[in-house]
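Late entry, evening session. Most of the bench is empty. Finally got around to the prediction I had been postponing all week. Sequence below, unchanged from the version circulated by S.P.
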Amino acid sequence: MTTRMPITAGALATVLLTGCGAQSGTTTTAASPATPSAVASAAASSAGPVQVTNCESVYTYTKTPERIVTSSTVATEVVLALGLKERMAGTVAAKDILDAYAADLNGIKVIAESAFPPPSREVVYSANPDMVVSGYPDDYGPKAMGDRAQLQKDGVNTHLLSASCPGHTANVEDTYTDLRDLGKIFNVEAKAEELATALKSEIDAVTPRTPALRVFDYAGGKEKPMMTGSTALYDDLFERAGGKNIFPEVTEFGQVSWEEIVKRDPEVIVVEDQAFEPADASIAWMRSYAPIRNVTAVKNNRFVVIPVNDLQPGLRSGRALKALAEGFAR
């Protein structure tokens, strides 16, 4: 299961958004576009087919997609950063967009106000897309858009930010790859390289704290606290900032126990700031919860608050890493 979140600005790059769900070697053909850029499409077609690999599948594009639906905030930011506003037919969860891209959403159809639960196939198809770009694998589950191979048969290409590929251990380099692959697909390679270079500069500018701190990622829950799994982007960001996840064996989003947290004694707690459980309320509750009053992070008031989307694959990784490093250094 993957948590959904808001995010920060500053960095300019993020995860590869190439198709994942169809069979290797499949040729994708975009549905008939009803909007712009015939010239750009013709240019891409004349250059020959474009191939990208995502989630271990190879996708061949014989035509530049022209009606994109983004089914998560982080995916919307990537698409807009690449300068593809004129190709956007619809979006999801627009209210959480970074300020830098808020104006670009004017005139773009919002097909669903929230990214959780994920949009259904019917909702997405209402925008007549020929491509869907998402940051969350559950968007392609049976209760959402469904199998990506079937979507492709319907003439809708699907792309998943590669740090979210099932079975993959995420890292920030995934975003550089995503940008470059999307740049190839949409014939905006120079812009993609610019974004990837800018994000890498932000990431490389952060010096990790030493020695590394023991870190617990708190994703909500009182009776049994929830945390994001160690294969998500969180772990890579924590390590780059100078932290070490105290539950490396928990690979998927799930629950742990307060008793085990006490035993592993985190020196800092990263609190995911989420709409359904604001960070301030979570911190106040943890400070008042007697069973964890002797945990080092609680005794020393070492809480680092990060908007949940900042920890997702996307252009916010530089901002998230800087905030984590500053919080760990206090």
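Two things to note before I forget:
DSSP finds twelve helices and 15 strands in the chain.
The two ends are 32 Å apart (CA to CA).
Will write this up properly tomorrow.
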